[in-house]
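> forwarded from #structure-qc
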């Protein structure tokens, strides 16, 4: 009986020892998990890769790979078109690493998340304003960084995009015979989006609105601003052609009247 008991205990201990060894073999350290995540990226298995990087954060929060894993995870979510999840991950990283190795990149990627949101017409225009604020912050922080250079390009596009949105509203008013609110919109564009490509056409449409209201002095001033700043613009030529046509027609009818007077 004693021998049987010893044998059972031996089997139990052996079994536990074997399971522990199996667990030790199966269990991966932080480096192995990180490398597996990177390998999945190379294989385009982004979801599997994210799972590995999350595992590092859960099981090895103080690992030297945890920050790298967090940034990789954010980037992959961005690639999977999950901007909201990307922003959450990056904000968490910045909070914990305000001056970290990847903080500048994190701020840039957050700006990019808002940038891609504006391509969806269902999104609120507030995302455009947030993206502009984020890119401005990047440029202000370090004008010479590679992120600042791209931010400047994106910023120019965003300003043109927003200016055109305002312009469309102004044109809606103008087409519906409401020149006064159209002028208000056009004035906002000139004031807030100087340098945007829509400015010459905005001045031209403002000139038209003033003409509809028979505010000749305002129309003339608007034309002068357009001609001075954009002398070669097609919108300047358009007004010039219109003025020349009116002048020629006026001269033509004047000549007819003079001839009629001379006959009588």
């Amino acid at each position: 009986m004693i021998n049987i008991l010893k044998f059972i205990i031996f089997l139990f201990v052996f079994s536990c020892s074997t399971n522990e060894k199996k667990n030790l073999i199966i269990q991966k350290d932080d480096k192995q998990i990180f490398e597996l995540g990177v390998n999945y990226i190379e294989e385009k298995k982004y979801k599997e890769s994210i799972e590995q990087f999350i595992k590092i954060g859960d099981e090895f929060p103080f690992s030297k790979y945890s920050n790298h894993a967090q940034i990789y995870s954010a980037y992959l979510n961005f690639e999977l078109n999950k901007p909201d999840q990307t922003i959450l991950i990056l904000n968490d990283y910045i909070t914990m690493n305000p001056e970290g190795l990847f903080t500048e990149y994190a701020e840039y990627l957050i700006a990019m998340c808002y940038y891609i949101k504006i391509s969806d017409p269902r999104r609120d225009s507030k995302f455009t304003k947030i993206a502009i604020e984020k890119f401005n912050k990047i440029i202000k922080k370090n004008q010479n960084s590679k992120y600042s250079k791209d931010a400047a390009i994106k910023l120019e596009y965003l300003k043109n995009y927003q200016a055109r949105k305002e312009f469309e509203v102004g044109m809606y008013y103008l087409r519906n015979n409401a020149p006064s609110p159209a002028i208000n919109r056009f004035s906002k564009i000139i004031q807030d989006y100087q340098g945007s490509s829509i400015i010459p056409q905005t001045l031209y449409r403002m000139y038209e609105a003033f003409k509809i209201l028979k505010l000749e002095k305002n129309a003339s001033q608007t034309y002068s601003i357009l001609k001075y700043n954009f002398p070669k613009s097609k919108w300047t030529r358009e007004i010039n052609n219109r003025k020349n046509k009116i002048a020629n027609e006026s001269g033509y009818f004047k000549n007819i009247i003079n001839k009629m007077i001379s006959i009588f």
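QC bot note: Residues 40 and 49 are 5 Å apart (CA to CA). DSSP finds twelve helices and no strands in the chain.
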